[in-house]
Amino acid sequence: MQVIRGPGEYSNATHERQGVLVDGFEYPPTVELTHNPPYYGEFLERYGFRKAKDYYAYTMDVQSPPPLRLQRLADQVRQRRDIETRPLIFKHLHNEVHLIVRIYNESWAQNWGFLPITDEEAILLANSLRLIVDPGLVHFAFVRGEPAAVLGAFPDPNYALRPRWRWYGESDLLRIARLLCKRRHIRHTRLMFFGVRPGFRNLGVDALLYEKVKNYAIQQGYCKCETSLLLEDNHLILRPSEFMGAKRYKTWRIYDLPLL
Fold first, then answer.
1. Residue 15: its pLDDT value, please?
2. Which residue would you say has higher pLDDT here, 249 or 228?
3. Does residue 152 contact residue 96 with C-beta atoms inside 8 Å?
4. Among 39, 56, 73, where does a domain finish?
5. Is the whole model's pTM more than 0.90, yes or no?
């Protein structure tokens, strides 16, 4: 062993909770992301830990019209390519999650710190998302019938679960009841995954998926979308996020401590 790296779960993959929040403390936490006091990073650095990699979160106004350039590009792709898109089919949720995992594992295989999601994790993921998933926020792209890409956003349950202290107090039961009542009225989302399989990149499938999900979110009245976790040097994702009008507002840090 040569280095301690973390904090995190079993890998540094972006589908897992990990990292120390080092910027953006004034904003509330988002589903499946860590949130901590500002002094955590200071303590780690005083002990000798040093930055290994940063992850970013971007936020965007969903109701702003999509860029005209995006619409033109999507129209060109539809005319020139044999590409089809469709939303997630909720009644086949387990099969759909396995398809998401297949695309995700191939798309992210070369990313820093990545470990593939297992079939068992896929089943747990499907069960945990069943309560909040909006099928229109998850879209697949197929090229000549072959799965090529997936983009998935989810309503943020933290919007309903956040404590709201009243004279009658607050409890887990009240928070769960509030989530059940509000789950179809949550207007804040988190874009959790987006991947294009090798061999299907530079075909414009990303433009089609962005356009589809963006237009659906506008029609359904969603207000805000957070895209995270984004590697600080993953410019293939950072540039499109900025192109869509997103602004960076949070940073998480993974630390290393050399052992030799």
1. 63
2. 249
3. no
4. 56
5. no
